[in-house]
Amino acid sequence: KSSRSSSSSPPPNSPEAVQDIHRDAGDGSDTLVTLDITCITPTAEEKARKWTRELGTGFTPVNDYIVRMHLPTDGTGLELLLSRLREDEHVHWFEPYRQPEILNEANAQIVQGGTTSSSPTKIWDMGINGQGEVIHIHDSGLDLTHCFFSDDQADFDTFCRTCDYTYAYVEVQSQAATSHATMRNNVCSAAWWTNGYYLSQTFCPDPANTTNCFDYRSSSVRTRKDIFEESLSYAEGGAVERFLSTEQVRAAFCGNYSLTSAYGYSGATAYSCALAESNDLSRWDRAWVKTMASITEDPTQSYGHFTLRTSPRPCTFSGTACTTGDSTQRKVKAYWAFADNTAALDSHGTHVSGTAAGVAADPNSGLNEYKGMAYNASIVFSDAMVGDSGNVLIPMDLGVLFKWGYNLGARIHTNSWGAAINSYGSLARAIDTFMASYDDALVLFASGNDGDRGYGSLGTEANSKNALVVGAGSSPLEYQNRVALNASRQYHRWGLYNQICNTSVLSSRNQDTFRAINDAILFRCGSSSVFGSPTSMTAFFCDGTKIDSEANWNTYACQVQDLSLSITCRDRALRALNFVALGDTDATSVSARVEVRADGNDEETTPPGVLNTIKISIFEMCGRNKNAYLYSENAAGRIGEYHMATFSSRGPTSDGRIKPD
């Protein structure tokens, strides 16, 4: 049986220990507490059925020795189950299960021991470039149209579709329905609208100087109805409504949450889905979204939560796409659509795969300056994420994942994801079991992205004894300024250009970018300065001297950030906006949520989360704040290849071993 050896930890029978397990255990659905239970004999399922009958809970068998037990989030039955586990001589250990998440913030360009992108490539110069190797990558999705992976001869269309995630997982829709019902009950209550709300927001003119900050509205206690009125007064179009009655507001939104059809969405949660995703909201609904952003509540509900099946379906690989792959492809030899076969713009899986082995087909392509470390290696890829849900899905038995790649020739399995619990659990054990059984295989895992928690911040998988666990050193200051910072500025400039200056998409662009800019101009400059059309907006901001000027765009962005008097009021109004834009060239933007400050000094936004989006920021386009931050970090001795990157998780493991490797 497992027990806590540290004198500072609560005894295993104490209420504190139960609270620890309740806090750490979660399968990603926010509706279950999940424990993994390992038996010393192959009787796990038999034991689980007994416990299930007694507790009225559910379970999922992982293999003959391990079961995954599910309990309600209120902890019902947890203490009784723990008692049964401690009493049973067949139970080897039990542990909280936590849904893995994606990790990796490293850059491949200085991995070879250099300090700048122009340093000697010591590893490549010895002929070590991945030639003849196959790398297995499990991640959020791979963009097969990206030039680093595409094939000039034929598109990739042979996906392995057997044994997908539905054999082990089921998507949970009830959470959205429950949250929608809770919001409906709230807005239908007159008392909810009249309850006082203390609205305090901090603004730092110089983000690098957090001692010179002050609060807006810090002395105001206002009702939700009052806040909605203010949001509505700044929404584009129509007269300014004031002194609405509580009943007017309550009735409007109470009815909306009862709709079964709204803005093209249907079903019991149609209105919530429309608030989350529609680009064509009415003025009142846009103000409603802004209101909820102001008081840190979310009127929209997201999907994409998954829970484990109580009875997994049989899983047997069949077909050449699963068992042999496609050797005719240049780079990606096999793609297991375990979750799906899609990748969001700038997907994590594309980033990780490019870092590992990406290279353009044309050897003379300038993009090969950014090729991956093992650029001559092939890739077999398994998709871990449905859409952009954020949930990393893995087979019930992690060994199945590695064996699939191994049988397709992969001897290296790299994984930039993990569960943020520093403990040696069944996932770490599965990794060690696989590597002990396959001497020529090497499994790599990221140490984690929780370095800001200090020592002992490793993830579960990083506790593996046999895996090669990789942390990140900080890039040198010169590199971060010249390459990384410049790339960030260019990225945000491209996003803004695509939304405002790209005339090829003006006819199909939704009006929301136009409306968001006009919202800010109306407040700062008055109604006479608002644009009459998207075309006139484009003509103003893309006149050859601003966003579309190769020589002046960065200077212009910094002038906007500084509220410079050398530019117009319309220009300065751009400071109010952080755009959240759909990434495709023919796509629309979604509404920026503009928080207008009462004294006119500044504005902020809280953008919504939308699939396939990029965030566009004038401040990031200028880059001065980030530059100042880099120099302050360097002065504090936290930058350079001899320092751990701030985000990178640190050891030791839960049992005192030195990791990362």
UniProtKB/TrEMBL annotation:
Residues 1-29 are annotated as: Disordered. The lineage of its organism: Eukaryota, Sar, Rhizaria, Cercozoa, Chlorarachniophyceae. It is an enzyme of class 3 (hydrolase). InterPro entries: Peptidase_S8/S53_dom (IPR000209), Peptidase_S8/S53_dom_sf (IPR036852), Peptidase_S8/S53_subtilisin (IPR051048), Peptidase_S8_His-AS (IPR022398). Transmembrane segments: none annotated. It comes from the Eukaryota. This is subtilisin. Belongs to the peptidase S8 family. Its EC number is 3.4.21.62. One of its GO terms (biological process) is proteolysis. It comes from Lotharella globosa. Residues 130-661 form the Peptidase S8/S53 domain. GO terms for molecular function: serine-type endopeptidase activity. PANTHER family: CELL WALL-ASSOCIATED PROTEASE (PTHR43399:SF4), SUBTILISIN-RELATED (PTHR43399). It catalyses: Hydrolysis of proteins with broad specificity for peptide bonds, and a preference for a large uncharged residue in P1. Hydrolyzes peptide amides.
